[in-house]
Amino acid sequence: MLVYRINPYEALQSEVLQTKDKEILMCLITFAYQQHPEYPLIMVANRDEFYARPTMKMHYWQDHPNILAGRDLEQRGTWLGMSKTGKLTAVTNFREGNNKAGELKSRGHLTRDFLTQDNSAKAYQQQLQTTGDQYGGFNLLLGDSRGLYYCSNKGAASRQLAPGIYGLSNAFLDTPWPKVMEAKQQLQQILHGDITIKKLARTLSSNHTAEDNSLPDTGVSYAFEKLLSSCFINSGVYGTRATSVLLQNKQGVTQLAEFQFDQTGKIGEQFFTLDIPLIG
């Protein structure tokens, strides 16, 4: 009997290098909104991307000093950021392996434009109902003092979010992929104990892959799907490059941290504190 042994790392290297969509952004986000008496907003997010893609770590942008975010140096956008005026945003792609991207705008512009424009989160969400098809498939979180919103250009209803614990990867909000469920469960556990930035960062540190019968079917190969099923990814060409943690207390003091990684492990970390309007 022949036994085929698939090395997911080798398969990934071949597959991602052939894809036409070079903005993979296969990220994972979990957040607790108005679920803790001291911290009305808690968010943890992993950014997964090619290691070779040029990136700046989280910083205040020179051209927009009110913005605090990492930056993609190819398209000048970001995957997660906030502003001193109390805006928050994060984006993931919608994974469709059979639908190759054409000449579409960078998804990182969605977050950048929200942070640099005067639109409220609600108004920006409404604007995207007519302009969202200019981008590849996306999931977008938008927040300001009036509320927290979710929108997508793949058919899910845009909406203001009620209090709760949420998970978002590369399908609609709260799609029960194994790593989404694991992330939410880890965050739920932390809510019942002492909360620190570093404890929160560890909620998305697992490299455990899902069982085969639990893998989603998003149109990519088995090996690719398997590798991407863990919360934290590390391969030769692609992986989790940053873990971001946001912790906002009821007085509006927000701690924001970013931990950076390459193939060898953690390579840096940044910590910021802002006194800004409460999200929602």
Automatic annotation (TrEMBL):
InterPro entries: TANGO2. PANTHER family: SER/THR-RICH PROTEIN T10 IN DGCR REGION, TRANSPORT AND GOLGI ORGANIZATION PROTEIN 2 HOMOLOG. This is Uncharacterized conserved protein, contains NRDE domain. It comes from Neptunomonas antarctica.
